[in-house]
Write a structure and sequence with these properties.
Oligomer: heterodimer
Order of helices and strands of chain A: EEEHEEEHHHEHEHEEHHEEEEEEEEE
CATH class of the largest domain in chain B: Mainly Alpha
Structural class of chain A: alpha+beta
Subcellular location (chain A): Cell inner membrane
Organism (chain A): Consotaella salsifontis
Distance between the termini of chain B: 32 Å
Membrane topology (chain A): Peripheral membrane protein
Helix content of chain B: over 70%
Strand content of chain B: under 5%
Order of helices and strands of chain B: HHHHHHHHHHHHH
Strand order of the largest sheet of chain A: 6-7-8-3-9-10
Shape of chain B: globular
Largest interface: A-B, 31 and 20 residues
Number of domains of chain B: 2
GO molecular function (chain A): ABC-type maltose transporter activity; ATP binding; ATP hydrolysis activity
Number of strands of chain B: 0
CATH architecture of the largest domain in chain A: 3-Layer(aba) Sandwich
Keywords (chain A): ATP-binding, Nucleotide-binding, Transport
Structural class of chain B: mainly alpha
Chain lengths: 340, 279
């Protein structure tokens, strides 16, 4: 595990959250260090957004403590926690111009006007918002609005940036651009950021450390490659990586483990010989790589990912072989118990 | 270019239906207006004809302006209506915001309790209201009417507005909280402008029954100095003789202020729709 260094910016101690009888956060412990980019990832309903809201102070934790920059903040209002937040729906103030949207938070905090102007200027140059400063949110495109929202966060110079699925409302092209901008912003400001997403590609590309959440619990915390190579359990193994990992019942292959997992890219395909003989059901040609869906005799439906173009028509017979040491073994509880 | 929606037959049919509806809706109003400019015989001989050189008469308006203090009645009606609308909108929106925004024990129950007034007519409580007003010395004051009308308008206002408040983006309110805005500023500066169209709807629904009401002015404030227009017009309707010229003229005049208020709110309605919101 990549050990984080530097001072602790955020510490969660046994944080739980109940809505009535429903427990949505079940005891989260986490330590975030200065300059880290942390991504909370998980399927919808796993509690990642609620956790972010608890950190921001927009929700109260039912139990547990939240420490930001060495201060216990449970009774501190959101505005005084030294945080800034970027929302999925941008949440710009519709009645204020871009400039005033960025100024409002500092004005509320009583920052001197000259200092506000300086910070707005720096942020707007950084995010190339200069031509839009006098416009109103309704006159901007989605991508521009999200840049303004990011600018509004930057001018606060917070100790902690919070991003709540900021790219979900953007189209595919803009999403990649804005992702790049956020990554550059992180490097330039050397800021500590927490980013919530359900998209594992965003998580893999942005994060220093990924926190995988499921049903209100942390499944695993680690660097992207660590989660990819050494997932702690079946859930993480299935969630990280695209296309999804293949899961095969251990008994079918005569293994003592409950389940075996192999990533589609860790299979070799050969027309003549291999471990699993099967028939191609469907082939997806993406140019850069090819996904084959193969109905095998021994292991059921398996996805294989090949790099480059591979000609295989549905109905063709192929043989799949797992790369040595890449097959993961899971026990009854889903825990990883080794490789083969 | 062939677009189904712009075919001439369709648009003629649509306009035909709309024009027919407009005629039906406006007919009684037009009848009142044209007859208010005629003399008594003309009203009864041919109620549907326009005022001609022989039948034209301003006697109704003259009577109205001479008898009684109609300017004062108008002032009373306007004060009662406007103040009641302002109070209904303010308190209704605040209650709706609290109900839709904050989770607290008994939230749903409180919402149901506040909506109860939609189902139970306030007039059932007239006797108790009168006793209350007598006890507090508010009989024959405009305050008594304003209080009753505010209570009467609140249930529907809370009900409609809380539905709309639920639709205001949580992110926007949370952004305000992170920027350090107080809950009051979030309510007045961020939420209210976004629900303005529904406020206009509530204002129109609230205004018309108040302006037209005869019951409470008659019971709570029948004094000369606190008469409203509808009550004032009643004095021309006698048990044996009714001064139709005066009644029609008074009614025609009573349409004007409410029409102006309606125009103001409907403009708000359009402006509310066109303002850029979250997305």
């Amino acid at each position: 595990m990549a050990e984080a260094t530097g001072t602790s910016i955020l510490e969660l101690k046994a944080v739980t959250k109940k809505f009535g009888p429903v427990e949505v956060i079940r005891g989260i412990d986490l330590d975030v260090r200065q300059g880290e980019f942390i991504v909370f990832v998980g399927p919808s309903g796993c509690g990642k957004s609620t956790l972010l809201r608890i950190i921001a102070g927009l929700e109260d934790a039912s139990a547990g403590e939240v420490w930001i920059a060495g201060q216990e903040v449970s009774s501190t209002p959101p505005a005084n926690r030294g945080i800034a937040m970027v929302f999925q729906t941008y949440a710009l103030y519709p009645h204020l111009s871009v400039r005033d949207n960025m100024r409002l938070g500092l004005k509320q905090a009583g920052t001197p006007a000259a200092e506000i102007d300086r910070r707005v200027e720096v942020a707007s140059t950084m995010l190339s918002l200069d031509p839009y400063l006098k416009r109103f949110p309704a006159e901007l495109s989605g991508g521009q609005r999200q840049r303004v929202a990011i600018g509004r966060a930057v001018v606060r110079e917070p100790t902690l940036f919070l991003f709540d699925e900021p790219l979900s409302n953007l189209d595919a092209g803009l999403r990649v651009n804005t992702r790049l901008e956020i990554a550059q912003l992180h490097r330039r400001l050397n800021a500590t950021m927490i980013y919530v997403t359900h998209d594992q590609v965003e998580a893999m590309t942005l994060a220093d450390r990924i926190v995988v959440l499921s049903a209100g619990r942390i499944e695993q915390v680690g660097a992207p490659m660590e989660l990819y190579n050494n997932p702690a359990n079946e859930f993480v193994a299935g969630f990280i990586g695209s296309p999804k990992m293949n899961f095969i019942e251990g008994a079918r292959l005569g293994d003592k483990a409950k389940t075996l997992g192999i990533r589609p890219e860790h299979l070799t395909v050969d027309p003549n010989s291999g471990a699993f003989k099967g028939t191609v059901v469907h082939a997806e040609h993406l140019g850069g790589d090819t996904n084959l869906y193969v109905e095998t005799e021994k292991a059921g439906l398996i996805t294989a990912r090949l790099f480059g173009e591979y000609q295989a028509a549905p109905g063709a017979t192929v043989h799949l072989t797992p790369l040595p040491g890449r097959m993961l073994r899971f026990d009854e509880t889903g825990k990883t118990i080794g490789t083969m | 270019m062939s677009k189904a929606t712009s075919s001439p037959t369709r648009s003629i049919a649509a306009h035909g239906v709309l024009i027919l509806y407009t005629v039906i809706a406006l007919f009684p109003v037009i009848v009142i207006l044209i007859n208010s400019f005629k003399n008594r015989q003309a009203i009864f001989r041919s109620p549907l004809s326009l005022p001609g050189p022989e039948s034209f008469s301003l006697i109704g308006y003259q009577t109205v302006l001479k008898q009684g203090d109609f300017l004062l009645y108008f002032e009373n009606s306007l004060i009662v209506t406007v103040v009641s609308i302002v109070l209904v909108l303010l308190f209704g929106a605040m209650a709706a915001f609290a109900l839709s925004e904050y989770r607290f024990r008994g939230n749903t129950l409180m919402g149901l309790y506040l909506a109860l007034g939609i189902m139970i007519p306030i007039r059932l409580g007239t006797v108790a209201i009168l006793q209350l007003m007598v006890a507090s010395g508010l009989v024959n004051t405009l305050t008594s009417l304003i209080l009753v009308y505010t209570a009467q308008g609140l249930p529907l206002a809370v009900f409609i507005l809380s539905e709309f408040m639920k639709q205001v983006s949580d992110d926007l309110k949370n952004a305000g909280r992170i920027d350090g805005l107080s809950e009051y500023r979030i309510f007045f500066r961020l939420v209210l402008p976004l629900v303005r169209p529904s406020m206009a709807t509530v204002a129109v629904f609230t205004m018309i029954p108040i302006w037209n009401d005869l019951w409470f002015p008659l019971i709570l404030a029948p004094a000369e100095s606190t008469k409203t227009v509808t009550l004032g017009a009643q004095m021309f309707i006698g048990q044996f003789v009714t001064n139709w010229n005066a009644v029609l003229a008074a009614l025609s005049l009573a349409i004007l202020p409410v029409l102006i208020l309606y125009l103001i709110f409907s403009r708000q309605l359009i402006r509310g729709i066109t303002a850029g919101a979250v997305k």
